[in-house]
Design goal:
11 helices, flat, Helix Hairpins
C-alpha cells in the first residue's frame, strides 16, 4: 500500500470525519464568542489562537484530500464547496480586505458537507429549485397584480402604505409574511370598511396557497431523494447477493472437481 492510498483511507475514515465535525463546532463557538466585547477583552488571544488552529486543520484536511484523490477531488461538488470556504478564510483580512474577516463565519457552513443528513436535505432542495422557480414567478405575478389594485384603491386613504407602486409592493410583501398585517388592514378599513375583502382574499391566495406550494415541492423533492437512495441501496444489496451466489456456485464446482478426482485416478 503506497502513501496516497494510506492518506485516502485516513481522510475517508468515519473517525476522521468526526474529528473535522468537532473542529467545525468548536470554531463556530469561538467565532460567536468573538462578537462579545467582554470575552474579547479577557480571552481574545485564546479565541484568535483557536481560530488559527482550526483554519490550519481545515487547510491540512483539504490538502490531504486533494493529495489522496488527485484531480478527482474536484468532481465532487461538496469538495469544491469546502475548498472555496477554506480559500476565502485564507485571504488577507487587513487593509482593504478587512471586510473579509467577517466571512470567516462561512466556515461553519462546512458542517453541511460534513454531515450526510444535511447534504441530503441540501441536495433535495437543489433538485426542487426548478419547481420552486415556477412558484416564485407565480408569487411575483400575484404580488404585482395585487400591488397595482391596492395602489388604485387605497392610495388616497392610506398613502403611507399604498401611496405608489413601490410602497404597495413592500406593504403587500409584509402582509404576505403575516407581519402586522392587521394594523395595515385596519388603518385602511377605517376609511374603506369593505377593504377586508381584498386583504382576506390576498392572504388566502398568497400565504395559504402559494407559500404552501413551496413546502409541498420541498417535501416532494425529499421523498424522491429518499426513494432514490433506497433504490440505490437495494441495487447494491442485490449486486452483493449475486456475487455471493456466484461464489457459492464456484465453490460447488470446485468441490465436485476435487471430489471426483480420486475416482478418476482409480
Amino acid at each position: 500500500m503506497n502513501t496516497r492510498e494510506r492518506v485516502r483511507m485516513l481522510v475517508d475514515a468515519p473517525a476522521f470525519q468526526r474529528v473535522i465535525i468537532a473542529v467545525i463546532l468548536v470554531n463556530a463557538f469561538t467565532l460567536g464568542c468573538e462578537t462579545s466585547a467582554t470575552l474579547m477583552a479577557g480571552y481574545g488571544w485564546l479565541l484568535h489562537a483557536i481560530d488559527r488552529i482550526a483554519l490550519a486543520v481545515f487547510t491540512i484536511e483539504i490538502a490531504a484530500r486533494f493529495y489522496a484523490h488527485g484531480w478527482r477531488f474536484f468532481r465532487d461538488p461538496w469538495n469544491c464547496f469546502d475548498a472555496v470556504i477554506v480559500g476565502v478564510s485564507l485571504l488577507p483580512t487587513t487593509g482593504t480586505f478587512g471586510v473579509l474577516r467577517a466571512l470567516r463565519v462561512l466556515r461553519v457552513l462546512r458542517l453541511i458537507s460534513a454531515v450526510p443528513n444535511m447534504r441530503r436535505v441540501v441536495g433535495a432542495l437543489l433538485t426542487a429549485v426548478p419547481g420552486m422557480a415556477s412558484i416564485a414567478a407565480l408569487l411575483v405575478l400575484i404580488l404585482y397584480v395585487g400591488s397595482v389594485i391596492a395602489t388604485k384603491l387605497f392610495s388616497e386613504v392610506a398613502p403611507e402604505y399604498f401611496g405608489d407602486l413601490g410602497e404597495s409592493l413592500f406593504t403587500l410583501f409584509q402582509v404576505m409574511t403575516g407581519e402586522a398585517w392587521s394594523e395595515v388592514a385596519r388603518s385602511v378599513m377605517d376609511a374603506e370598511p369593505l377593504a377586508w375583502i381584498f386583504f382576506i382574499g390576498y392572504i388566502a391566495v398568497t400565504t395559504f396557497t402559494v407559500l404552501n406550494l413551496f413546502i409541498a415541492v420541498a417535501v416532494s423533492a425529499m421523498e424522491s431523494q429518499v426513494s432514490k437512495e433506497r433504490e440505490d441501496s437495494d441495487d447494491t444489496v442485490q449486486d452483493l447477493l449475486g456475487e455471493v451466489r456466484e461464489l457459492r456456485a464456484e465453490l460447488r464446482e470446485l468441490r465436485t472437481e476435487f471430489g471426483s478426482a480420486p475416482t478418476a485416478r482409480s
